[in-house]
Structure formats: structure tokens, C-alpha cells
Design a protein that fits this description.
This protein is of the alpha/beta class. Helices cover 34% and strands 15% of the residues.
């Protein structure tokens, strides 16, 4: 916890003081634990969450191995869920299904109890969007955390050094997602819970510090010494290293992909799970996500939880279970709440009355399913999509954004050494992304082919503007400035969404003081032409001749391009469903490469006609540079030539 500014600490302590109860040492008695998960969730002195749905509480009872708390309703629900999976004798007897949970769930609960577990080690919840998986996971994590906090001495109990923080890590594809979803749910539950209020040491965005009960009794007041820390973590290889962990959660794990600094769920899990080692057998791992493709660690964990020993029929990983549900399944039977409704546990009263389900399969969802059944099956019905066919080689895409001669390329703000700069913009309607790519040719080896280097990759997103829509006037102004800064030789636009933008940029080009003026024109896209462009880009990329500064969205868009016959486009489901920047990159790459390869070459039906190749070949002569200087520049390394006063590292 070092490196915190005093201002940050003071702000966090002030927020904590507004939430917390009596200060440490103020008459705090012995640690108290709830009877069980039912009392913890519903009890007014505990979490006081009266809005729990009956099936959500069934799931919490399952996760906490609470067999005595199962009502007739709970057992009926478990049996219903169990009908969706059957034993697949052709594959060693493992469970197979597309909805529900394996039929040996009660047997797994008994086995966990037999070995001294207090809860399932690793639930895997495959549930459609808005299905309540994050809320249930946060309640469960709060329950586990309370058990740790109320140990007499949690550090001594597990043999952990007293100065070590005991961590709750919540991983997501990026930090904003981690802060906004599961971490926010967990912190919100804790900050509003009567039982946790006296233990809150400091509260930050995406981070919460808590004292142990022992620290409260001892009168500890320094938040930097708080025993427990909840933190949102961006999926990086080192994010889970350092503190000893008691809980590790993966939020929307199916969508965690390796790009730039981000790592896949597999890499993050492999790096983070050792942090749980000292807390066995009471560690807790939670994975929840709407599904995506049948690839990656989240799907592997789903499959692992279904494995059965063919000799005994017992689950191989008895401390795991998977539950696959639609977005609305968890809210069924909501109408059976209230005074005459379902019991929360045998002899323990009924559920507080609920007014409506959070999600239900109504006419709106039925229409959504008819209009886009494939996406609906994944995002709402919680069905795994088939493994996608990536159009580009992932290794080649990642190499495009890698270091050049040991140096990370950086975005540029203007022209360098009179290279010939091309740009392409992919306009959009005001509610979608608007992308630009600017690049140039260089010849790293005087006897080899030219390489394409990208100087600027940028996307204007609707959410970046105050109105939530693209401000075309502002974007036009920025593009006009870039035309001058890079002395663009050519700027192309797709015909879709160009509108008056083409006329405005052509007018601006006429005002530029340099010569030759920027040629601004529109490309007419056709399906055959797009396919030819994509194939040409793939060839150049596979030859290792495309280089770009790191840009997460650009890398993801290229990685997730899908091929359907002769069509290459973004997928309609998955972590990335845009290809604006990928289109701009492919267009600039192919147009630049065409300048050297073949004068007057045309790609079928694209309008990509390279009629300026001879002119570009004599550009340095036209600029008054002697041929010997031109040759010397070609022989200089790309890294050396790409340095400028504005960018010493380049």
C-alpha cells in the first residue's frame, strides 16, 4: 500500500468515516458470525438484503454447502436444473448439456463437507446478461470475507506474515470494467451492510480497505495497516502477484482476451491462483460470465467441472460446479414471495414480497430473438457459440504491434523526414465509432521490400463527446489539422457515412500551403473489392511488413475479424464487434504497398487505383533532395529515422 498520497488517504478515510460505525476499540465485543447464509443475507443486523429472489438464495445455499437449509422448493429447483445435463458415455461418462447443472450436485456438496470445506472452491456461472450472476457472486464473496475477518487472528491461522494484506482480487478485461461491475457490486453491498460498517478503514473507487475484528478490538486507526483489501484488477500478468489472496473472482471471464498489456483469462488465472495457496482449504474462486466461444480458460473451467472418473462415476473436480442459465431463469417464482409464499429455510419464515422480476422472457425479448437469434442464444440464453474462425493469424497481428529494433513505436503528431503519408478515415453515423489511420512507407533493407509504418491510429467514440454522439464539426476540424501536420499525400474515405464530409475536406485541401495538395477522394466499397483488399493485407501482414504503435482496439479488431465465405467483418458477438479501425488499417496498408509494387495496378471493383506510383518514386527529386541523400535515408534503420524532436524515443 506504499505510494499513496496523503490527500488520497485523507479522502478515503473521510469517505470511510461517513460509512463506518463506532471507531476501533469503542466497546466492540467478541466476533459474531451468522448462523448461515440465509441469516447473513436477510438478517437486519447483517447484509439486510430483502430483495433476494428465491432461486438466488437456492444458489447461495448450494455454494455454501448448506444441505440442512434446502427446502422442498430448493430441491425441486436443483432437480429441474439437473434435467439439462446427462452423462456422455462416449466421452468417459462426463456430463454434457446446454442448460442447468450436472445431476450429481448434491453429491458434490456432501463430498466437499466430508473433506472439511465450508463452501465450493470454484463455482462457474454461465448465465446470460442481466441474469444476476454478479449480484449472487458479490453476496457470496461478502460471506466468505466475513468468515475471514472474524477469525481470532486470520494471519496466524493461515501462517501468513502479520504485515501482509489479505486480498480479494476481482479481475476483468480492463480496469474500468472491473471497477464498474462485480467490484462495485461487492463494495456496494459491504458499505451498505450494518455488520460491515465498523470495519471499513478506507474507501476508494474500485478499492476498499477493511480492518479485521482483531484490529478493531486493538484500536487500530491507520488505514494503510488494514488487514483486508478488495481491489479491481485489470487483467495483466502481474496484477495478482504480491499479497496473499483469500478470494479471486473473474468478472465476464469469457471476454478476457490477450492484447497489449491485457492478458487472457488463462494467463491471469495461472498467475493469480498461487496467491491462494496459504488459505487452503478455505480459498474461494468465483468465475461468472455470459458465454462466448468454446475457447479460453472460462470454457475450459466449465468443461473441467463436468469431468467424471470413468471407473467410479465420481466427479473429478468435486469442489467445482457449473450452472448454465438464461438471463431470466434466476428470477422465476418471484410471485411466490410474501407472507403466504415460499420459506427461506425450513421453519424460518417466508421471503419478503417482491414486486417484479428483473428480467423475463416477454414480447420484447421474443422480438429480439427473432431478429438476431445467434446473438440472443449467446447473450441471453447463455449458450456457447461455436469456436470462431479468425481471419488473420493472431501471432502475425501481435507482431504488427511489437517493438521494432527493440523500440516501442509511438503515435506521431506530424510528418517526419518527408515520408509520403497516406490516410484513410472510416466515417460513421453519429452513434458509432469514427476511425482514422495514417501511415507511410520505409525500406529497412535497401535490397528488400518496403514496410508500412503507421504513425497514427485513432478512434472517435460517441461516449467521448458530451452529447453521447459524434460531433462531426469537431472531427472535421481535427482531420483538417492532421492533413496539414502530416502533409498527407492522399486521404480516402469510405462511401458509407461520408456525406458532406468529403466536400468539406476537399475544400480544406485546396487551402493547404504545401504541394502537392492532399488528394481527398472516396472509395467505392464492394464485396469483391473488400475481399481482395483483405487478402492483400493478409499477405503483407504475413510477410512481417506492417508495423504500428500499440493500440488495444486496433489489435482486438484485427484479431477478431471473421471470415464468412468471401466476406471479412467484425463478429456480431464477442468482446469486439467493430472493425472501423481495422478497415482503415487495411486500406492504408494496401494503398501504400501498391505504390511500390505496380504502377496503375487496380484491385477488382474497389476503386483502389494506384495511378501515382511513378510520381511517388520521384518525390525526393521533386522536393529538391539529391538522389544520394534519398539512398542514404533508405539505408538508415527505421528506428533511427523515426526519431524526431517531438519523439526522442522514436
Amino acid at each position: 500500500m506504499s505510494g499513496w498520497s496523503e490527500a488520497r488517504v485523507a479522502k478515503a478515510e473521510t469517505r470511510a468515516a461517513s460509512i463506518a460505525g463506532p471507531r476501533p476499540g469503542a466497546g466492540l465485543g467478541p466476533a459474531v458470525r451468522p448462523l448461515d447464509i440465509v441469516e447473513f443475507v436477510l438478517g437486519r443486523t447483517w447484509l439486510d438484503r430483502s430483495g433476494i429472489y428465491p432461486r438466488q438464495l437456492t444458489l447461495l445455499k448450494i455454494m455454501t454447502l448448506a444441505l440442512p437449509l434446502l427446502t422442498e422448493f430448493d430441491r425441486k429447483v436443483i432437480a429441474e436444473w439437473g434435467t439439462g445435463f446427462t452423462r456422455d458415455e462416449e466421452h468417459g461418462g462426463s456430463w454434457s448439456g446446454t442448460w442447468g447443472t450436472p445431476g450429481d450436485l448434491l453429491r458434490r456438496m456432501e463430498r466437499c463437507l466430508d473433506v472439511g470445506r465450508l463452501w465450493f472452491r470454484h463455482p462457474v456461472l454461465v448465465i446470460g446478461r442481466r441474469g444476476g450472476k454478479g449480484h449472487v457472486g458479490a453476496l457470496m464473496m461478502a460471506y466468505v470475507l466475513w468468515w475471514y475477518m472474524t477469525l481470532d487472528d486470520p494471519h496466524e491461522y493461515f501462517g501468513i506474515a502479520a504485515e501482509k494484506t489479505l486480498a480479494v482480487f476481482v479481475f476483468a478485461a480492463n480496469h474500468l470494467q472491473a471497477e464498474a461491475n462485480l467490484t462495485a457490486d461487492l463494495i456496494g453491498i459491504i458499505e451498505s451492510a450494518p455488520c460491515f460498517k465498523p470495519y471499513i478503514a478506507a474507501s476508494y473507487k474500485g478499492r476498499l480497505l477493511l480492518w479485521s475484528h482483531q484490529q478493531r478490538q486493538q484500536g487500530e486507526t491507520d488505514p494503510k495497516k488494514a488487514a483486508f483489501e478488495i481491489s479491481a484488477r485489470h487483467a495483466t500478468p502481474t496484477a495478482g502477484r504480491g499479497p496473499a489472496a483469500i478470494i479471486i473472482a473473474f468478472d465476464e471471464a469469457a471476454w478476457m482476451q490477450a492484447t497489449g498489456a491485457s492478458r487472457s483469462a488463462q494467463e491471469v488465472e495461472d498467475a493469480a491462483l498461487p496467491a491462494l495457496g496459504q488459505c487452503r482449504p478455505h480459498e474461494f474462486v468465483f468465475s461468472a460470465s455470459s458465454p462466448w466461444s468454446q475457447l479460453g480458460r472460462f470454457f475450459e473451467n466449465h468443461v473441467r467441472s463436468l469431468a467424471v472418473d470413468p471407473a467410479t462415476g465420481d466427479p473429478v473436480h468435486y469442489d467445482m460446479f457449473t450452472l448454465e442459465l438464461t438471463s431470466w431463469d434466476m428470477y422465476k417464482d418471484w410471485e411466490q414471495t410474501g407472507p403466504a409464499g415460499l420459506e427461506v429455510a425450513p421453519g424460518r419464515g417466508t421471503f419478503p414480497e417482491l414486486k417484479r422480476p428483473i428480467e423475463t422472457y416477454d414480447d420484447d425479448l421474443a422480438r429480439e430473438e427473432r431478429e438476431n437469434p445467434d446473438t440472443f442464444a449467446v447473450e441471453r440464453r447463455g449458450q456457447w457459440a461455436a469456436a470462431p474462425h479468425a481471419y488473420l493469424n493472431p501471432d502475425k497481428v501481435r507482431a504488427m504491434f511489437a517493438k521494432v529494433n527493440g523500440t516501442v513505436l509511438r503515435m506521431q503528431d506530424g510528418a517526419t523526414h518527408r515520408f509520403i503519408y497516406f490516410a484513410h478515415i472510416d466515417p460513421s453515423v453519429t452513434g458509432a465509432n469514427f476511425a482514422i489511420a495514417i501511415g507511410h512507407l520505409e525500406r529497412p533493407d535497401p535490397d528488400g521490400p518496403n514496410h508500412i509504418y503507421f504513425d497514427l491510429l485513432h478512434v472517435w467514440r460517441p461516449q467521448d463527446f458530451p452529447t453521447g454522439r459524434i460531433d462531426y464539426l469537431a472531427v472535421e476540424s481535427e482531420i483538417g489539422a492532421l492533413m496539414g501536420a502530416f502533409h498527407l499525400r492522399e486521404l480516402t474515405l469510405d462511401q458509407f457515412g461520408a456525406g458532406s464530409l468529403l466536400d468539406h475536406l476537399q475544400d480544406h485541401a485546396r487551402t493547404l500551403v504545401f504541394t502537392p495538395k492532399t488528394k481527398v477522394h472516396q472509395i467505392t466499397e464492394t464485396r469483391p473489392g473488400n475481399w481482395s483488399r483483405a487478402e492483400e493485407f493478409k499477405r503483407i501482414l504475413n510477410e512481417g511488413r506492417v508495423h504500428a504503435p500499440p493500440h488495444e482496439l486496433a489489435e482486438l479488431e484485427l484479431l477478431f475479424l471473421q471470415q464468412d465465405g468471401t466476406k471479412v467483418a467484425a463478429p456480431t458477438i464477442g468482446p469486439v464487434q467493430t472493425d472501423d479501425l481495422a478497415d482503415a488499417i487495411m486500406t492504408v496498408t494496401v494503398r501504400l504497398d501498391g505504390q511500390e509494387r505496380a504502377p496503375h495496378k487496380a484491385l477488382d471493383d474497389t476503386g483502389l487505383r494506384f495511378v501515382y506510383a511513378n510520381e511517388y518514386a520521384t518525390d525526393f527529386a521533386r522536393a529538391g533532395k539529391p538522389a544520394v541523400m534519398n539512398a542514404a535515408m533508405r539505408q538508415t534503420s527505421p528506428t533511427a529515422r523515426r526519431r524526431s524532436p517531438n519523439n526522442p524515443a522514436r
